[in-house]
Amino acid sequence: MKQRMNIFAAAPEAMKGMMAVEATIDGSALEHSLIELVKIRASQMNGCAFCIHMHVTDAVKHGESDMRIHLLGAWRRIAVVHRPRARRAELDRVPHQRRRDPCVRRGLCSPSESVRREGHRIAHGADRRDQLLEPAPDRSSCRAPGLKAGSGRSLSSEERRRRRRSSFEWTRKQSMKLYYSPGACSLAGHVALHEAGSPFETETVDLSTKITASGGDFEAITTKGYVPALVLDDGELLSENIAVLDFIASRYPKLGLDGEMGRTRLIEALAYISTEVHKSFKPFWRGGSDAEKSAASAYITKRMQYLADRVKGDYLLSDQPTVADFYLLVTMLWAERFGVVIPTALQGVFARLKARPAVQVALKAEGLI
Ligand SMILES: N[C@@H](CCC(=O)N[C@@H](CS)C(=O)NCC(=O)O)C(=O)O
To answer: To the nearest whole number, what is the mean pLDDT of the chain?
Structure first.
């Protein structure tokens, strides 16, 4: 194959201009996914398959919907690419300072999302709301590894360009990494990432020795020592199934619930599955007595019945599966394995979930089928 030209070496002046334009656009209040749509469209017009692939990957990563990407070829004729007037007005109300949030500038979330969404808080390590509302003094958590904190104002333009380039290359190389143990609750996140079509890597963990498949010390990755552990694409570690699944649904809204109460209802379901269903399997995993197992079994069926009585469609919360379905799926697989009765109304959901291609892929990858 013909080697690609190193454009930075071949046309440094042109690249200088390009990077300056890109820096200006990135520093503006435009949503990152919208910028990527423009880049995809330009690449389509240029007929550059490499660039289309690169910008589609970035657009998906920044939460762009498949629909808007597919419709780009006819963008002049459709309404979906335009931000609704209400959305523009909302954006205009965001104080300028917040638009300068480094996470917003890197396109990890839109200005309003940086205030509103839990995904932002988790992804960027701010666990208090007020840390979000006021710019944190040290923003290193939003930065690519190896880039030092600082305002950037005192940097030479050459150094700024070098950093931009390295951060640009870094974003391209990193993808999320899920540490899982076959059949464990981490399977929920594994399925969700496949459903999302997200680029991600995996590594298995031996939970008895805490050694990862590549021989690493899992407790050095998370002192919690349990799965799931999701290393985000900016290098931050996320643990706890509820948080991991909420993060995935925030980034890939098709796996969440629409509406003002959507996210709250999703967390409500995740919390119920985690604390009332998942945790009740303890006697089965931790060598409980027969009496303990039998009591747990009855309790789990009762707790599942509550969900069964409220099934909202083909899946638990709607006609489309959400991350809560994938968590429930794991517990139903455990129920099947340990002979716990699954309520009839959940059996259809169970069958539909098992038949999904993403579920099949994840089960196969974990060696469960
Ligand atoms: N609080 C955690 C618990 C996760 C959990 O129970 N993980 C199990 C597998 S399903 C595990 O890794 N156990 C190994 C251990 O605790 O040593 C969560 O909700 O994500």
So the answer is: 79
